[in-house]
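Friendly challenge for the regulars: who can give me the structure tokens for this chain first? No prize, just bragging rights.
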Amino acid sequence: MNLPMNDLEKSLEPRRLYQQIADRVRVLIQSGDFREGSRLPPERDLAQQLGVSRPSLREALIALEIEGSVEIRMGSGVYVCARALRRPALSIPMGESPAELMQARGVVEGSVIVLACVNATPEGLARVRESIEGMRADIAAGRDVLAHDREFHVRIAEMAGNSVLTALISTLFDERQRPLASHMRNRLESQPTWSAALAEHEQIYRCLVARDPLMAESAMRAHIRSAAERWVIPDAA
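First reply, four minutes later:
Bragging rights claimed.
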């Protein structure tokens, strides 16, 4: 039986890379290197200063914004919050690195869709199509599209016929609801980004209908890569 972790066990958990980077930036703020109300160096410069990648730094800054240490102003920069607004480093789990999640999804879903092509049925394809149409209706109505987006990916996994892989894809996708990923999603998702995702879903569906596993795999990997560029690492080049 799995028992809840006590505080000591939690403290012994390895800290994710974005958490380690957030710790370093927090120390710079607390030591006065980055003063209250000041703007942090541009992302590219700060990443070079810390010797980290820009996607990992971005995740760290989002984590710091959630805890109230910094404020990210789109088009302006990242600013150090007043001391009174800061809270202790959050003790609740913020979730996995969104960049690593997308990498994992690309590996898993790129392989699963090959099985889905082999095992595709008219009924399974109809369910995938239904998810696409639900997504289209959500975009047109300005509703949150995430539920139908998840449904699309899970139904492809179900068509592959492996319940373990279906559960894995569901778990990976549901990490988008955790605090770090959700905060990033709310900042970056928009009708144009969802419209691009819808077009990619339609291409994946066409490959499934054609029973073309190589094209389906290519389309799925391209979709996950494009989603990462829209959601996790925009302008990171």
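The first strand starts at residue 70 and ends at 73. The domain at 15-85 is CATH 1.10.10.10 (Arc Repressor Mutant, subunit A). Your move, everyone else.
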